[in-house]
Prior knowledge:
Elements: H1 2-16, H2 21-31, H3 48-60
Amino acid sequence: EAQDLQGFAVRVISVLLKYPVIAAGKEILRISGYDCGDCRRPLDSLSDAQKISLRQELTEVGFFERKLGL
């Protein structure tokens, strides 16, 4: 089970590192029902295309199927 969880974490992190990490984290929270607003300067928020892509990639790795305590 530990190896499975580690592999899952690696897949999720690989997706997150393709995007500005803080903005990606905020988008994940928004998708999960916790809208924390956009990033403030000097950080950029995700574009609409990036939001769609992030959600698609996280869905592909099974992120939203796991119970993560959010």
